[in-house]
Amino acid sequence: MFVKRSFIEKSLIDLLAFLKAGLYADEYALAQGLMQSLDPRVKTITTVLCIVLVLLAKNIVVIFCLYLFCIFLAFFSKIRLGFFLKRCWIFVPFFSLLIALPAIFSQISPGVSLFTFKVAQTTFVVTRQGLSNAGLFILRVTTSVSFVILLSLTTRHSELLKVLRLTGIPQVFILVLGMGYRYIYLFVEIVEHTYAAIKSRVGFLRYERDGRQIVAWNIAALWVRAFKLNQDVYLAMLSRGYQGEGLAWNDFKMRARDWVWLVGVILLGAVTTLCFGKRMWII
Amino acid sequence: MFWKEDVDNLIFSLKNVNFSYLGRFPALADITMDIRAGERIAIIGANGSGKSTLLQMLDGLIFADSGEFNFSGTKLNEKKFYDVKFAKEFRKRVGFVFQNPEVQLFCPCVKEDILFGPLQLGLEKNEVNKRLEKLVALLDLGSLLSRAPHQLSIGEKRKVTIASTLIINPEILILDEPTVGLDPLTTRKIIDLLISEGLAGKTVIVSTHDLHIVEEFADLVYILNQEKRVASFGATSVILGNMQLLQDNNLVHIHSHKHKDEVHLHPHLHSEHHV
């Protein structure tokens, strides 16, 4: 018999599915592609360089070329383009579309009128300058987000944390971040199993008060477990010689292809600047 | 040298040691035991008898409320571990494998977890790399090194926790129920590893419910009872030969089954890990 899912049940299932999809997706980081073959430090530095180029460029053609470059990299890193574009564009409405929307109107961006419409006796004029500014903004955000997603998809999260360790951030912060990241998996599993245990006994998560009570109890139980785990993990760290200072084991190695890539991206930035001159940069 | 050389090779010496959690929940009562270098010791007892607490105390993670606890002739207490040099030397000599691998695997990937100990203890990098290579071959960890702990099976997690302790190359190896929840083949591999570590001259202390491990590997057995006391100790053959003692401490149970039409009763020991 079909049982309609309650709001709580649906929220739990969707939240867990989202977390798992995000956390467990390292299939692309394991693929034998262009970005995966690079040293994580070089990959991170060149990604930051590309984002700086995107942020400083004011010419929409330059930004569009960089966006195409990012898609080209994704393709040669064996990432399905449909998946990659969906991943990138899902964030755009949240971060830029809603912000950019008011900018297309003459009230914010005065200029050449393209078309006019009325809502509740208020006239809205869409201007060419407004559309251009909004387009530039959205493309800039999309390209920056795409580079970051490309980096996170093609690099193991543990390697990204190791790169962070080399940037001078206090080691203890990175250690805590890494442990937090590691134990999210465990807690996602615990929540999932707890949910299955409840479902096996009551059939489905109840609506309203009972459902909220079950969720509240489980949040409390999870907190107690986390507290106990925290104590035990600290003992395990002490047992292996931890003295309050997290130390990193740096086993990264620069190879010829990493140097080529690093120099190549720096040259790309230089050539772009030379080609577009002053018209390229915001400042 | 932080500790005295003992003519009897005495490593751990506990005299009338008591410990309770939060000062209210007794976990060890009047424990007296001597552990010498090179001994292979099994600590057995039913659930809740204080085995894990005792092992944590031997690893210098918790300290006695009362009684005397010495390590190589040096009195061990919390203050002693404020001395960083002493703490490092102790951790190099004593390695501990926790019962729950989730506790011990706290780094984002397996290789980092294995290298955590040597890094904290300041071991030399080339030496650590050599040990890592050896352990990878011994425990067949090659394919696991770059994986995250959540991607491992329970048996793989257990192997990684053992590797993360063995890489320190401790003289004294303490393992808390190392075979619990494992399949027979992995259990067998871990028993073989314990036997080889024992034969290599290490002091190995294992807590377990599995009397077959005890039979194969231990020279000496301590039984802890529900009162958190040492119920008995002695040579393995003597302890395991005393069926009444094992029954009294919930370590064997009476099992009945049929041979043709005749119902047959006998004390039962599980032997599923034998392959």
Overview of this protein structure:
The complex is a heterodimer of chains A (283) and B (275). By secondary structure, chain A is mostly helical. Chain A folds into two domains: 1-30 and 167-247, no CATH class; 38-165 and 248-283, no CATH class. Helices cover 69% and strands 5% of the residues of chain A. Chain A contains eleven helices and two strands. Chain A has helices spanning 7-24, 27-30, 40-56, 60-76, 81-89, 92-100, 128-154, 157-165, 171-202, 208-239, 256-276; strands spanning 113-119, 122-127. Chain A has a two-stranded antiparallel ribbon with strand order 1-2. In chain A, strand 1 (113-119) and strand 2 form a beta hairpin. The mean pLDDT of chain A is 81. Chain B is an alpha/beta fold and 275 residues long. Chain B has a single domain, classed as Rossmann fold, CATH 3.40.50.300. In chain B, 35% of the residues lie in helices and 28% in strands. Chain B contains ten helices and twelve strands. Chain B has helices at 51-58, 84-93, 101-104, 110-121, 125-139, 154-166, 184-199, 211-217, 236-241, 243-248, and strands at 10-21, 25-36, 40-45, 66-71, 74-75, 94-97, 172-176, 203-208, 220-224, 230-235, 253-259, 262-268. Chain B has a six-stranded mixed sheet, with helices on both faces. A four-stranded antiparallel sheet of chain B has the order 2-1-4-5, with helices on one face. In chain B, strands 11-12 form a two-stranded antiparallel sheet. The longest helix of chain B is centred in the C-terminal third of the chain and has 16 residues, at 184-199. The radius of gyration of chain B is 19 Å and the shape is globular. The interface between A and B is medium-sized, with 29 and 34 residues.
Task: Note the main attributes of this structure.
heterodimer; A: 283 residues; 11 helices; 2 strands; 69% helix; B: 275 residues; alpha/beta; Rossmann fold; 4-stranded antiparallel beta sheet; globular
